[in-house]
Amino acid sequence: MISDPVSLALFYHQNQLITDLCIILDKFGILFAFAFLGLVYLNSKLNLLDSFKKRSKLIMDLEPTFGILKKRLFIAFIALSLAIASIQFIKLVYPQERPCTESLGMHKIECPISSSFPSTHTASAAVLVPFTIGTAAFIPSIIYYILMAFSRVYLGVHYLVDVLVASAFGFSWYFIAQQFLSKGTAMKIASKASNIFRGFLHLFFGLFLMFIVMLSSMYSLYPIQISLSILLVLMIVMFYLIHISEKGSSTLIHEIMSFASARDSFQGESAIWFMLGTMILIGFTQDVNKIIAGIYIVTIGDVASAAFSTKLKHRKSIFKNKNIISYFAFVLASIPATLILGIGMLPAILIAAFLESLNIKINDNFLLFSFLTFWFSVFS
Question: What are phi and psi of 266, to 5 degrees?
């Protein structure tokens, strides 16, 4: 049986025009993503737009877009390649039948034999969204991504959860590639007011997500789908705000984003990593108790650790600005999670506290969520 009403409704809806369009996306969707990157590359080498600039104002307006995308091209190519490769591996580790194999003889296309979870096509389209932020290609990339995700569920080759988790994968790989491949920048010093504001947002957002998961589990049969959908909407809204800020369309939004992201390497960084990590935790565990415990550890543990952190004065260390007190503050603040999942969570908390203190390029929130996802998948 198809596991949620959205997947059920889309799969059994019949419209020949929509089906034909979705089949085109099925056959050429991933190729389209690489073709777009190829177009950006060719324009950077051959200046394809130059011969059309005098004839079309639209082409003239696209020139700045291609200039920005050229700088991000290598990052996008690596992210797209890693997203596809990692999902092929996950399909081997998490075998799951596709909706079309469980239907009663109804097939809009030939049903693939590989695992349904997660969607490679959706992840490839998702990579293009952060790649195009701040350019004229952003809105078209959003539309393309939505159509791709819709087509996978409509054709019955993926469940709703498959495309939601794949979205998080596509977004995550782009930002991971950006962290490692972009030129390094000096650590930013945020004001005390900015740090307090960031801490408040971190605490509020973590508690808000726990509330959403608990509420959806109490009043719905589909808490995983609802929680992931809400996070995806929030993610798209965040991308749009960053897009507006980078384009300079709103001075107020730019000032707010800059203030909240004073310590970040890009606008909205901390919030984006937190949401992406939460989506991956929810999608892979699909257990309400584990999800709430995981969000609690990352939210409360991080706030407690930050409260006892110390400033490093020009001293290189693998432990950021943490010390033994902040380590145990993280552990003690996270102990209540054992009331949900038992004392067996204590080793995970000890390891999480250590990972949170490391000074590495991967955001600590995303690292913690990824570790907890691994822990729940392997040891629970």
Answer: -150, 160
Q: Which amino acid is at 198?
A: R
Residues in CB range of 330: below 8 A, 6 or more apart: 301, 302, 304, 305, 349, 352, 353, 356, 357
Task: Provide the greatest CA pair distance for the chain.
Answer: 70
Specify the CATH number for the domain of residue 73: 1.20.144
Q: Mind listing the pLDDT tens digit for each residue in 218-268?
A: 999 999 999 999 999 999 999 999 998 887 766 666 676 666 555 667 788
Q: Are 114 and 224 found together in one domain?
A: no
3-class DSSP state of 68: helix
Domain region containing 310: 192-379
Residues 162, 56 share a domain: yes
Residue identified by tokens 């003889």 is 105
Q: What are phi and psi of 352, to 5 degrees?
A: -60, -40
Residue whose pair of structure tokens reads 């097939």 in the numeric block: 107
- The rounded distance, in Å, linking the Cα atoms of 206 and 194 is 18
Q: pLDDT, tens digit, for every residue of 49-90? A: 655 555 555 555 677 888 899 999 999 999 999 999 999 999
Whether residue 41 is predicted with pLDDT greater than 80 in this model: the reply is: yes
The model's pTM is 0.90
In a domain, 187, yes or no: no
User: In Å, what is the CA distance from 64 to each residue of 69, 120, 248?
Assistant: 9, 30, 14
User: pLDDT of 189-223, one tens digit each?
Assistant: 455 555 666 778 889 999 999 999 999 999 999 99
Number of structural domains (the chain) is: 2
Number of alpha carbons in the 13 Å side-chain half-sphere of residue 228: 26
Task: Report the C-alpha gap between 49 and 43 in whole angstroms.
Answer: 7
